[in-house]
Amino acid sequence: MAASSEASPPAGSAAVPGAAPSWPQVLARLTARRELSRGQAAWAMEQVMAGDASPAQVAAFAVAMKMKGPSSAEVSELAEVMLSHARPMPAMRDDAVDIVGTGGDGVNTVNLSTMAAIVVAAAGVPVVKHGNRAASSLSGGADTLEALGVRIELEPEQVARSLAEVGIGFCFAPLFHPSYRHASAVRREIGVPTVFNLLGPLTNPARPRAGLIGCAFADLAEVMAGVFAARRSSVLVVHGDDGLDELTTTTTSTIWRVQAGTVDKLTFDPAGFGFARADLDDLLGGDAQANAAEVRAVLAGADGPVRDAVVLNAAGALVAHAGLSSRAEWLPAWEDGLQRAGAAIDSGAAEQLLARWVRFGQQL
């Protein structure tokens, strides 16, 4: 962090010692490409979430932070403020996993993380997925789940029940983060990725301790990993080297492995586990109904590139979950995860879990 002598804002926006931050102070620092002082990012996000920031201030903050480049400390403050405004969740088991990406990769793939979440839950690991409708693609995870018949707009207590009774729950972001509406409209109007794109995967209101987190932005994946490391989560932050915010099967992926407060950067090649190289076209999706049909086909046992990608990402989430134990070893965890993910599909367990999830919502 910058020393106090470097922290002084330019003339006209000088900070008074002990005074609360101000927008001129925060924006002057960001536009000078200097890291914010401790608490300034939290102050700015509090203004946004409380509805006290104008659209111009929200947009200026988002773009200035993008141009400066956010740090893990700054993003952590943003995420913690957002979580403090989230609707509270009832007590839940603390070993759940999330599988989610930032979006923004510009490629309209099928909903790999949604399928992987179902497979992981069918393998016996609790999943609390945080997601939303599509922002730029044809179908987001929420859209596809809805097309499958899953009831997505559940109250916190109902999500907790779903996790306990089915093994999986879905936190629909707009329902759990109502105060974020003050930023969401500006984010859509800006039309370019900003620091706000990182916050969805970092603000699951259930606060699962493990996750497979996709990041479409290679330069920001390490920032996200740093946030999870500070939380002492067990997470794989992944970036496909083809640009996907998933573990890809078209080439290698970069993984930031977060465990016990540390981050290790790795290159991961699925060919090492016998996966054939896919073409990106093999993974492209359509609208919600088309993607739902793809989910049903994969869970029914259809082979091919989409199944491979689903198994790979489900295994990655299982590896992250295994990382909650300090005894977990990398290669054995992958071998076990791949076996369990494939078996969850081949046994029919994943298909059956989806059916139970649909029935759960119908009976509420």
TrEMBL record:
GO molecular function list: anthranilate phosphoribosyltransferase activity; magnesium ion binding
One Gene Ontology cellular component annotation held by this UniProt entry: cytosol
Binding-site list for anthranilate 1: G101, N132
Binding site for Mg(2+) 2: D245, E246
Record-annotated Glycosyl transferase family domain positions: 94-350
Cofactors: Mg(2+)
Pathway named in the protein's UniProt entry: Amino-acid biosynthesis; L-tryptophan biosynthesis; L-tryptophan from chorismate: step 2/5
Record-listed Mg(2+) 1 binding positions: S113, E246
Ranges of residues in domain Glycosyl transferase family 3 N-terminal: 25-86
GO BP annotations, alphabetical order: L-tryptophan biosynthetic process
Binding site for anthranilate 2: R187
Family, similarity comment: In the C-terminal section; belongs to the anthranilate phosphoribosyltransferase family. Belongs to the anthranilate phosphoribosyltransferase family.
Alphabetical list of PANTHER family matching this protein: ANTHRANILATE PHOSPHORIBOSYLTRANSFERASE
Function per UniProt: Catalyzes the transfer of the phosphoribosyl group of 5-phosphorylribose-1-pyrophosphate (PRPP) to anthranilate to yield N-(5'-phosphoribosyl)-anthranilate (PRA).
Name of the protein: Anthranilate phosphoribosyltransferase
Organismal lineage: Bacteria, Bacillati, Actinomycetota, Actinomycetes, Mycobacteriales
